[in-house]
Amino acid sequence: MRAASMQNPHQTATKPSFNFTIRPMNKTDANEIVNLIRDSYGDSYFYKNYYDPMKIINENATGYLKSVVAVTDDNQIIGHMALMRTPDDPQIVEPVIAVVKTGYRNAGVLASLAEFLYINRNPELFKGVSGIYIPPVTKHTYSQKQVYNHGLKDCGIWLGYLPDAEFKKISVDSIQRLTLVLTYMYVIKPKQITIYPPDRHKNMILELFKNIGVYHVECPLPKSSSEIHMDGESSLKIKTDEALGKAVLKVHRYGQHIVSDINTKLNQLCSQNFSVIHLYLSLNDPLTHYLTPLFEKMGFFFAGIMPGTSCKDTLILQYLNNTEIDYNKIQLASNTAQEILSYIIANRICKV
Question: Does this model's pTM top 0.85?
Fold first, then answer.
């Protein structure tokens, strides 16, 4: 156990009238963590399974979560944050359940949790991890600014990705699905990468890699599509979340029927009323250069990049199914995020 830093150079905070420490979660903390979630979100937090204390305990035991808590001198648990790692993408982690108890906010608690959990990067927590991603909401800019202060950079925007959630004590007006800013930070930064982006998005993709710290990106011209043979079956991974109305299709291998395979899956998911569908394509595969325009003709559109997924350096395309977006309600804290949003809007209007 160590004393938490009470000040953060990037955070404006009044000097607190209490002391606290940061430590790994104990099993006996689980009920209080659920209370913290309810204190911040009521019943509207996206990850509904974490309203169950046993789920938090079990996922910490298996390593899918790594939770830390902020504890006052009189043993009150006033804050929580966890690193979430999924079996699908074990090389990247997402800080989740970042909550601070009412009455203890704006005093450096959240910054100290982040410092302990992922800024200092305890080697035990980051075995096999190549990157950290955080997708803050855009119904306000508070969480975006916090994320930027921690060193993460913009690399995409996910329109209407989640149902709306109530953020207590934050006055906002929003009735549409939540748009998220995708931010990323390498744990292990490559000196150089080789990718095969589609011509249409090449410049934006290069700018996004540069923004997250990769300055040497090779983009060799791939063989002509007629020289690249797609044989055998496609390898697709599909993950759906009915409660959140979202689905993710990850292409691990392009088979000879990949275009019709994706079209069939898209139609199935739309008929099942999923609101948002993401398509993950490997930028390290030359076929992505040629096939992306075919997927865009189905209605998919550019949403950003994400290194370190099971598709390696990933191009993310998005499809919205009967989901309207009022762009005027999207609040962005950075110029880069605004540029990404403008690019996405322009490309949705100017279809392939």
Answer: yes
